[in-house]
Write a structure and sequence with these properties.
Blueprint (H helix, E strand, L loop, with lengths): L2 H9 L18 E2 H11 L15 E2 L3 H6 L4 E4 L13 E4 L5 E4 L5 E4 L7 E4 L8 H7 L12 H13 L3 E4 L6 H5 L5 H10 L1 H23 L1
Parallel strand pairs: 3-8
Antiparallel strand pairs: 1-2, 4-5, 5-6, 6-7
Length: 220
């Protein structure tokens, strides 16, 4: 049974020869010190740690590690067409060295001076979740433009399939609860779950609709 066959069997609720494994693709990384420690246990060179600035830097396991761990999935990066990107968040360095990114929605992320981890500092919605706030932050709009080179991406996927592996594209759908925590902080999200469940479900539905529209350019 190939890796792809194994994963398809699991997704279709059929018994496979073993549980499929996915580690180190586009959303699964590990701290540099963990990656280096695991490489030592496996007796391989931790090549992807080269250039990592500190022990907490996220590192994607290399192909040798994926093979040693029996990983069944490989990432394929979507080939993009040239296009104009909308303005990104405004970056500034605070007097204490903290780096701050302010998004158009009012959401702010910060990285403390000397640290690597980036944390949510202020959510996009700081008060109650209302329809007006929902429309402001995640407006209903047209589908995403045709931004991906579908033929080139399909070829890249086919090349991985020929090797017997399953594929995960780097434009995967983020967990809707995790994504929405950037719109509401953890307390706000939990409060909305208790007091505004319909609006919270609509918030997550809008995320999914946006992600599906974005993916149509290469999954269509």
């Amino acid at each position: 049974m190939t890796s792809r066959e194994r994963l398809l069997a699991a997704l279709n609720h059929k018994e496979s020869d073993r549980v499929p494994v996915d580690i180190g693709t586009s959303d699964t990384t590990m701290a540099r010190e963990v990656y280096e420690g695991l490489a030592g246990l496996l007796g391989i060179e931790p090549v992807n740690a080269n250039g990592a600035p500190n022990r907490n830097t996220f590192v994607t396991p290399d192909e040798t590690m994926l093979e040693a761990l029996g990983a069944d999935v490989r990432v394929v990066h979507v080939v993009e067409k040239p296009r104009s990107w909308p303005p990104g968040p405004v970056e500034e360095v605070l007097p204490d060295g903290t780096v701050q990114w302010t998004h158009s929605t009012g959401m702010i992320y910060r990285r403390a001076a000397g640290e690597w981890d980036i944390q949510l500092y202020r959510p996009a919605i700081t008060g109650d979740l209302t329809r007006a706030e929902l429309d402001r932050v995640i407006p209903l709009g047209p589908a995403a433009d045709d931004w991906a080179d579908g033929d080139a991406t399909a070829k890249a996927i086919a090349d991985v399939h020929k090797r017997g592996y399953a594929v995960q594209c780097n434009r995967i759908i983020m967990p809707v609860t995790g994504t929405s925590i950037g719109i509401l902080d953890t307390a706000g999200w939990c409060m909305a779950l208790a007091t505004q469940p319909d609006l919270l479900c609509e918030l997550m539905d809008r995320f999914l609709a946006r992600c599906f529209a974005d993916a149509e350019s290469f999954y269509g």
